[in-house]
Structure formats: C-alpha cells, structure tokens
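Lab notebook page, bench 4
Experiment: in silico fold of construct C2
Operator: M.H.
Input chain length: 123 residues
Purpose: comparison with the prior construct
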Amino acid sequence: MKKTQDGRRRFSRAFKIAAVRRVSEGEPLAEVARDLQIGMELLWRWKKRVIEKGEEHLHEIGGRKRAGESTAKEANQGRRIAELERLIGQQQLEIRFLDKALRRVEEQRQPRNDGGGAASSKR
C-alpha cells in the first residue's frame, strides 16, 4: 500500500487479488475488509470487477490504467490521420488533373504571329 500526497491509500494489484481471493474462498467480506483495514465497499468493487471481467482488470497502484484510454485515443487519432491522408491524396490527384488541363489549354493557345491587329470581317 502507498499513500498519495492527498493522504489517500493506493493498493498494489497483488494486494487486491489476494483480498478478493480470500473473499472468493469463503471468508466473509466484512471480516476480510476489517482485517486488511479497507472499506467493505472498496473490497466489494474489486470482487465485482474480478467476477465480471477477471483478475487482469484489477489494476496497479494508482487506480485504473490509462493504457486502454490512450489506446482508444490513439485509434481515433489513427483513423483521423488516415482520413486526412486520404483527403490529401485525393487533392493531389485533383491538382495533377487540373495542372494537365491547364497545360493543354496553354498548348492550344499558341502565340499568334499576325502582328496582333484586330481581325477583319472582310476577306
């Protein structure tokens, strides 16, 4: 067990697992909580988490792991990056198309060597 700066106690994963196993093996929850000097509600939450999700969901000192959250964030960021890269690729294709079209228009508008006078309607 460790204490934080605000005086709250933090328990290791091994401590939590050992406490839950005692309750799971038949010891009364209130007795285990009193023996370990922890709240019954806290021990009950640990036990509930183990029953619902398994021991791997009892996290180390400091509470819930942030790895799952950062993984979700990273996945969202990865999707966003992929979408932006796709948009950039699409824009590059459009730019290339427009650049080629502009070159063709410029080639068709070859300079005239007729002195630049106004065209006559008479021939």
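Observations: Helices lie at 13-24, 29-36, 40-53, 67-108. Residues 66-109 form one domain.
Next step: discuss at group meeting.
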